[in-house]
Amino acid sequence: MRKLGLIGGMSWVSTRTYYEHINRKVQQRTDARHSAPLLIESLDFSQLYALHDEADWDRAAGVLVESARRLEQAGATAIIIGANSMHREYDHVAEAVQVPILHIADCVGERMGADGVKSAALFGTSNVMTESFYRRRLVAHGVDLLPPDLDNVEILDRIIYDELMVGKATRDAERKLKTMVTVKEKEGADAIVLACTELEMVVDVDANVLPIYDSTRIHAEKAVEWILG
Question: Which end of the chain is more exposed for a tag (fewer CB within 10 A), N or C?
């Protein structure tokens, strides 16, 4: 098996989720005695929280680049960034190392394209939902994205940053997400993209009124494909 590097620590919850998904998939594809050969760099999320201007993002890019370089030097043969929002700085990280960086939105877009999904709604943090760095990669795979609802953007930011990223999942958040999914179905979405690692805490990925494409699960599955060669 090939060694994979994981840049984690956007929240400890997301790092835990990636670790669990990757190892469970490795066991399913091999046997229960195997676990994934992972190098994990868990960053201090306080350095990457609530970034507002380009200076903030430049600083975050520097943190991610240095992390990727350390993982490469430690023997990682590929790297994943365990946060959808941090893929805003994907190009900077990819240019700084020689090993491939598996882009989360490309993994999701490939899966949706293969499934023939034509219209979807994107749920995540405000920068993921409103900026082009994530949306354009899904569109490149033939997925038409509904425009972001600005009320949803504000609600999701609050739920993600104030609750989920500190490990708190409430019934109120579950109800709000369920309502959002139902509304998007009425607006013509064929599927929902969960473009935030922690949203699976309050969304039933396997039982909903629309197919749910959980970016974390899909990213983890692509990582396992790499690990197993």
Answer: C
- If one compares 12 and 148, the residue with the highest pLDDT of the two is 148
Q: Which two tokens stand for residue 191?
A: 């599927």
DSSP bridge partners of 194: 123, 214
Tokens of 78: 């590929």
